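Appendix B. Extra example for self-study. Work through it before the problem class; the solution is given directly after the inputs so you can check yourself.
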Amino acid sequence: MSSFRIDIREMQNINVLDLKGYLDAHTAPDLEKVFQNLMEVKKFNIVVNCKDLNYISSAGLGVFMAYIEDVRKNNGDIKLSNMSPKVYNIFDLLGFPLLYDITSDEADAIKKFTASRK
Amino acid sequence: MTILSSSSPSKQSVSESAFDLDSLFEFSTVVNASLDIKFIFNHFLLTLMGKLLSLRGIVLLERKPNVFRVENVKGLSTDLLEKEFKFKTIPKRHIYLNREDHCKMPWLKYFKSWGIQLIIPLISQDHIVGLAGFLPNTSKKRLSEKKTTYIKSISNIAAVAIEKGLFIAELAQVNRQLDRKIQELNTLFELGKEFNAVLDPDRLVKLLIFSVMGQIGVNRYAICFVKDGKMNVVSAKLDRKINDDLCLYFPTISAPLLVDESTHKKDLRWQKQLHNIGIRALIPLQLQNQTKGLLALGEKLNGEAYSKKDLEFLSSLGNLALISLENARLFREAIEKQRLEDELLIAKEIQKGLLPAALPAIPNFEIAASNISSKQVGGDYYDVINLSPQHFVIAIGDVSGKGTPASLLMANLQATIRALVPLGLSLSELTKRVNNLINENTTSGRFITFFWGILHSDTKILKYVNAGHNPPFLIHLDGRIERLDKGGIILGIMKTIVPYIEGEVILEKGDVLVCFTDGVSEAMNAVNEELGEDRIREITESVMMEPAHIILSKIVDAVKEHSKDTSQSDDITLVVLKSVA
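Solution. Structure tokens for the complete assembly:
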């Protein structure tokens, strides 16, 4: 059974999700739940740190697709950071770099949020 | 070094040659180190423009046979970039425009219009991969041999490097396509596994949506499934609703289609409407070539059009989901069926428990009874109750319908009879009360055909009431035959208004009473012929001298023989009473 874990940190009104393990069809609903909760409490500045993400399948990517519009409508964004080359390759193959802000470092993503707030 | 030792070279020409060699070497090193053909074009143009003191430069590459595309320009309008031209009959040598015959090579007119004078083919492995054009700033009508050699060398080095670059670019492209294909297969594989493990259709649909959104990069969708020849939207995220007309059109779609590109008449009618809702692609979900569902998708967020590969992938994914949904449905049905079967089994057990386990011994009489229940739970009933040493109740009934409701009503009948009989009332009065109670306890449409009698074992008198049941045969030893048909209305239809009439018969020694349900008389054979009541009589007559249980088993055998090639559709219930003293 594939394992997947999401830890959430909040800093300066930005929610950072640390994804660990395998985000696939089996675990995608877990991520969806986290996004659902964030929408309910109106947290729209989200950074997804993919440092420990080993694999992402299209079902996992679909969760990002499902929420990006709501988030941006509320002047927020989902930014992705710290992807391994393997994971980035999947994002790239499916054309996600065009649609999402992907940074190499979490700090850069956070900076972008705080800069746009000023 | 060879140049230095050549015969009487001027000082200037020697150093120029050395410079040329250096430059050739450098050019070769630089372009061969690069796999980026754009960089190679740029470097090539700049190098030759420098050498020729050219104010203009252009390089074209043969992208398709005889089709050349502008890859880079210097000193010319950048509008030319990526424009394509058809060139034929290109010589493998450089061309000086003002001295060439334009009639043989009409394509030279383009170069003329760009103000290009010198055209150089880029040759690799003896074939032309591209063309470069320059406007040399020289007063001379022709290039020196040395310059020509230099230009040739540079061009050839560039041609080889370009070809290598193109090849590597193509390889990278193929690699990426392969990566993408692998990723698609991974998705299909993963979902195939996951779909099979998921039995909850809502979760399955959600997984399908997520995967489609992630793989294709869309976030507008609708998923529909066929129910009663019409599509029902089970999940959607669209700016406008899908109306009923579209739901009738959707089942007619048998192959993936791009809304804006279909030219079929039947599709054109809906094109505008679909476009306005934001739907760009329709993918039917099929099972054995029948459209059972539909995936409607909006625009890809990257603005690209749906490719044939996208549609193929979506078809595979959708059909996979459909099969899994179908499997989940069948699985649920199997569980439900199992549950019903278990329930029926319990009902059957209850019903069996209601029939007498053993028959009381009746002085001067033999009695035999049998109930063979069909696969389904029926509502046949019989009972023999010992009221007093001389009084015995014999009852047979058939509750309408089958299954659990029928067996419950039968239980109700049995309880009513057992409760009322000890009151010592007349049969007519008892039947009236039984009918009233059953009538109060049944829903409309349910009824019971019922026959019962009270036998006095000494006087051998049987008083009976027949409430719409198949009249039992009383076959006398002397050959007379009576049908016991006195009584009244079927139980359970309405309250008793007209009193039930009691009949009375005497069973002399050797007389046989045969009570049966319609499962006996209406037993069907393979060609849908009933056994018939007359057969019951004939069989009984033929074995009148045998004991009651033999008579009974002969009738049962006849029923079984008659309907041997069919499945038993109704309960078979028989009660045989024989006077033996």
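Self-check: Chain B touches chain A through 27 residues (CB under 8 Å). If your reasoning did not lead you there, revisit section 3.
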